[in-house]
Design goal:
By secondary structure, this protein is an alpha/beta fold. It has twelve helices and ten strands. It is 49% helix and 13% strand.
């Protein structure tokens, strides 16, 4: 098995340097290649690539067409028979490739995903958002918990896919975000099986602020009704939970103004539970508090985005590309 590591990048040479340094430090003894796809960047990584002559790197520059199409471009250019996809803001532990090789040798699968983790040197905000995005209490563990419910949907910040599966599916679609679950669903329909490799984790250094996080999760909410319109069998009641939470909290505040406190106490109990769990997981009460704020931001952004998209796409039957053109690369 020959691994081709495919990395789309857009104006992030500093991130690419740290990512390539982590790939150079792999303890994996077999050869592998890196395919770096510059997606129309003004600030390119070409000089950074030149600093890593010991790595087998194929560097390509193309016009901007989005991360999904850039991954497809890289996989078409790759020489390997198994593709591993990372985001440019990831740092890869030294055991990663060895772990993936071992796992696939023991139980082969045509596509897999791994978790993301927070390194000790991450900022408090990065650690809080990492908790929010990965905790079983907030997302159901869909981004890499062993206890996650249902089939595992790999995410392209840390994902592997065989050449056969890529060619059969034709890779990622033109929507972003949402291209990851869309690809997983289409692969399942084609008969391919997904798998979580829990020990093949990456350190995901999200470029994040509160405003960027809200915008990101709002887009996640917007794309979900679009995906369920394309793949109706994937609709789940759990997709409604953030929306129900937001309006439930608002209703509990109204009830509390009339002296009916039980709904407010229920919402506060959930937030206290999150605070305790996040503080224990991160070993910091301060990060625990930030995690509670992050959950409120996440549920509000996702929940309102989901409701807006559901009304337009599912109820009013509007064309997704016309309603939300910023979610598509043409």
């Amino acid at each position: 098995m020959f691994f081709s590591i495919v990395i789309p990048v857009y104006n992030r040479p500093d991130e690419v340097r740290e990512l390539l340094q982590s790939l150079k430090a792999q303890d994996y003894l077999e050869p592998f290649e890196v395919v770096l796809v510059e997606d129309g960047s003004a600030d390119t990584s070409e000089k950074v690539v030149a600093d890593f002559p010991d790595l087998d790197i194929s560097y390509f520059y193309k016009e901007n067409s989005g991360p999904g199409d850039s991954r497809n471009f890289g996989m078409r250019k790759a020489k390997g028979n198994y593709f591993i996809i990372f985001d440019s803001d990831c740092v890869i532990p030294s055991h990663y490739l060895s772990e993936v090789s071992k796992a696939l040798s023991e139980a082969y699968c045509d596509f897999y995903g791994g978790p993301d983790a927070a390194r000790n040197d991450f900022s408090s905000l990065q650690k809080a958002i990492n908790y929010t995005m990965t905790s079983l209490l907030t997302t159901g563990g869909i981004r890499g918990k062993k206890t996650a419910a249902g089939k595992f949907e790999p995410r392209s910040f840390n994902m592997g896919i065989s050449k056969e599966a890529f060619q059969a599916s034709e890779g990622f679609g033109r929507i972003h975000p949402g291209e990851d679950p869309d690809l997983s669903i289409r692969l399942w329909k084609l008969g391919f099986k997904s798998r979580l490799l829990a020990d093949a984790f990456v350190y995901h250094k999200r470029r994040i602020s509160w405003s960027k996080f809200y915008a990101q999760v709002r887009k996640f909410g917007l794309v979900r009704p679009i995906l369920t319109s394309w793949h109706p069998q994937t609709a789940k009641i759990t997709f409604w939970f953030p929306t129900v939470f937001v309006f439930g909290v608002l209703a509990s505040l109204i009830f509390a103004s009339f002296g009916f406190m039980a709904p407010l106490y229920l919402a506060l109990s959930y937030l206290v539970l999150l605070l305790i769990h996040a503080s224990m997981e991160t070993r910091s009460v301060y990060i625990g508090l930030l995690s509670v704020v992050a959950v409120l931001v996440q549920f509000t952004g996702y929940g309102l985005g989901f409701l807006e998209s559901f009304i337009k796409v599912r109820l009013l039957k509007k064309e997704p590309r016309q309603s939300f053109p910023h979610l598509f690369f043409d």
